[in-house]
Structures are given as C-alpha cells and as structure tokens.
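Annex B. Sample input.
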Amino acid sequence: MCRWQRRPGRVLGNNENGQLGADPSAVPLSVRARLVAELPATKAVAAGFRHTCALSRQGEVWCWGAIATSAGSYVGQLGHGINAGQSTPHLVAGLPAVAAVVASGLSNCAALGSGEVRCWGFGGSGEMGNGTRPFAQLEPASSVSAPSFGHVTALFAGASHFCAIVSAGREVWCWGSNTQFQTGSTSAGGSQSTPVRAGALGDASSLALGANSSCAQLDDATVWCWGNGPAAANCTTDPGPPPSTSCTATAEPRLRAAFSASAIFGGMGQICGQLTNTGRLSCLGNGSKGRLGDGVDHGIFFVQTLRSLVAPAEAAVAIDFGMNNGCALMAAGTVACWGVNGSGSTGDGTQITSSPERPVLIAAP
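Annex B, continued. Sample output.
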C-alpha cells in the first residue's frame, strides 16, 4: 500500500510485488515512508492491489511493481509493453499531457488534457472502456468511448470499475465490472465494456467508488449511490442472535438520506463524506478491525450509520483507503492512518498486527 505525503514519491507498507519501488527480496515491507528512487517530482500517486503509478509534475505517468509471484499474475499494470513487472519506475509511453491517473485493483486509466481517457492492465471485465476485454493490455489502449460520452473533467476508480464526470451536464458515466450493478448498467453478464450513464444524474461534483458500489455528490450536496453494500443504502439488518445483514444490488442511483456532504471519498468497503451540518469527515461501511477510523472495532462489514473520524484525523480534509487500511490528509499536510498493520501500512513505525482503531500520525522517515 502506498500513501501520499508532503514529500512526493514516498510509500510504505507491503512490498511483496515491488510496489514500493524496491527489490522485494531486499525490502519485503517498510514500516516507515520511503522515497521511491528514479522517480521525478510527483503531484499524485495511485495504488492498485500489487502495483503503483505516479503522475509527475510534467504530466507523465510512471508505474512500478506487479512482480509476478505466480504464472499469469502479471496483466499489464505497468503499461510498458513488456509482459513482466518491475520494482523500478517505468515511464508509460504514448500519454500526452496527462491530467490525472487512477488505479483499480489490476488496471489503470489516465485522463488526458484533451479530455480523452486511456486505460491499460487487466481488461477482462471491460476496464478498457473501448468495447474490448483483453486479459492483459500491456500498453495504453485506444480511447474510452461510447455514444454521447464526451470530454472527461474528473476520473475515479473502484476495485474493478471506473467512472468519470463529463463536461456535458456533468453527467456520470461508468464502465468495467458490473457484477453488482456498480456501473449503473442493468445489462446482464457482469461487465460493461463501454461507458454507460449512471441513471439521470447531472451536476455531479465528485464521485466515490468502492468494490461493489458507486456514489455521486451533486452541487446541492446530496449524495446518490448505486451498486451493492452499505454505501448503496440497500441493506437490512436482523439483530439476531446472531446478527446478520443482507443487501440487494441496484443499478438505479438512490438518494442517501441524511448524508449531505461537501466532499465524498470511497474505499474498498467504505464511503466517507465531509458533512455539511458538522464539517466532520464521517464514514460508514466495513467496520471490522478499526477500518472506519472511529476508534471502534465493530467486528462487522456492514456499519450503516455514519461514524465520525477521531483525533488526530478529525480535522482531515481527504481520505483514501486500501484493502485493509485508511489514511487521512490533514489541513496541515500531515497524514494519519488506521486499520490492519501487519505490513506496517499504518505508518506508525511498527509492524504490530493488532489493528489501530484510532488514526495515528505517520512516523517521520
């Protein structure tokens, strides 16, 4: 897992596949943020399951990691045209003037200054967005396209699907895995290989994508979600004993009542919002092992009521999630993390496997 810090290009956590930019045989993990060598000054980092990409200040994309631990596990995540991963950053060619890069679990997409989007990596669920489904797209594919899909102004990634806000009406369009209707498509087959509009949403200002759900924040601060899981507002809980929760997938965006937010952020099983009534960042979703950062191990995957982050992340301005962790960026530029720490991913300088339920500041390098 990689985390952005005040010093660009610093990462920490598991390095089994070279995703920290170091030889995994020499550096299997790092409990403190380390500098990625041979990487130009960066302004953004995107981390997948086993690889990392960075956007340089010059608008270039550099990727590394994805060193295969078994046959067939490399699927083109680095975009360098070679059927193998590597621990040193490599420039992704053929991407002029990149404005943003995002990473799903096994794929990446870049938004160009022209408003086009190009993707690479695993495309078996339609992640390339151009009507193809390659197992391994080794270089950036042809542009994402669909009728009425225009100039992209913002780009977002879930675990295996992507969504974009387009300039025309600021509509939301999605593509990729659709096993739980997370793209907003009602089509059968579990994948959407070209962008589809999510409902009739317009005037979208931000999106938050998870493993099986998608949410959009509109100009009026309302939040609309679709897909499956607590974020999509389609779960019911039986108090038991034992307690159990069941959810139903939906392709139609639903209004999240009492979730008025000025900004939203998504994770593998969480959605968070900067609430308009309190100004606090609050989350719901997977609450096991302290993943919500509210100081509690809820022991369940379906926390359906908003939980506020606790100090020191209570003054956070942004959140990002990995598979088992969350990190928050504070207004002062510091970063605090929480969740499972077996690989040192919380950045507290230890590898204690007990899960910090309260955010802790990343230790200085």
